[in-house]
Amino acid sequence: MNDVLSQIDDARSIITARTSLVPRVALVLGSGLSELADDLDDPITVPYAEIPGFLPTTIPGHRGELVIGRMAGQPVAVMRGRFHFYEGHSMQQVTFPVRVLHALGCTTLLATNAAGGLHADWHIGDLMLITDHIFLPGLAGHHPLRGPNDERLGPRFPAMVNAYDREFMALARAAANSLGIPLREGVYLMLSGPAFESGAELRMCHLLGADAVGMSTVPEVVVARHMGMRCMGLSLITNLALPDGPPANHQEVLEAGAAARPKIAALIRSILAHIDRTATIPTSPDRP
Ligand code: HPA
């Protein structure tokens, strides 16, 4: 059989052969944030190269490993590095790991990314809680759910209103507040990349209601919601993406990631420590 469920199952069995820990939270680490996985207790590491359907990562700052262990007592599966549409992969390939993490037992997705801030008064190193998204490639037809729908995975027409779980948002705000970490909030707009945006494109993103731009996360969230996972997103503002500002570059993205790591690590640990209060119940994809 070659259908997606058997592909998911092949990947799942390679991973479950290495650990009996059932992860509940899938944590995807974006550019420059891979080292956060060093904080895991009793980790087991599976290189992507050993998992069927997982792809090699080609981006500096993205390691290609799945790490399973505990963080702040919570069983987690951490993707050290993700796949991007701009690398030439299909949206289905980009999101396949989320399907596998769900099959492993994850009911929650916590996605992190590096993003360009669209506000002149924001700063490099700011953290932004993603409250909603604009999926520009998806709206233009590059959508991970395009094509035949497998009802065993989720419905044909999943809702994306409130894709980012409100209880998790409240948890993230409370965690940031108690740690004294300022937390911005806003709409993340995904573009395909890999070129950084032109000035006119950045003006358009701002007009559309976005607060930050980036090249990831949304396809994974859409697929996670398709399967009824609860989602949370955190952006690290690695550069200001301003029409008249200096052009963005990948090196500054990595440097901002390194500098902000302790802050984002503390926030994630605190969220994970408290997530059970809200997070273990799988929900239907069109949960309001
Ligand atoms: N644009 C798009 N993606 C990004 C940016 C940006 O300015 N910064 C980090 N990822």
Can you write the helix and strand succession as a string? Answer: HEEEEHEEHHEHEHEHH
Taking pLDDT < 50 over at least 5 consecutive residues as the criterion, the unreliable ranges are 280-288
Report the sheet with the most strands, covering strand number, pairing sense and barrel closure: 5 strands, mixed, barrel
Widest beta sheet: strand line-up: 5-8-7-6-9
SS element count, helices: 8
Structural class assignment: alpha/beta
Total beta strand runs: 9
* Silhouette: globular
Gyration radius, to the nearest Å?
18 Å
Distance between the termini: 36 Å
Q: Helix proportion of residues, in percent?
A: 25-40%
Report strand %: 15-25%
Q: Average pLDDT value? A: 90
Q: Give the cofactors and ligands.
A: hypoxanthine
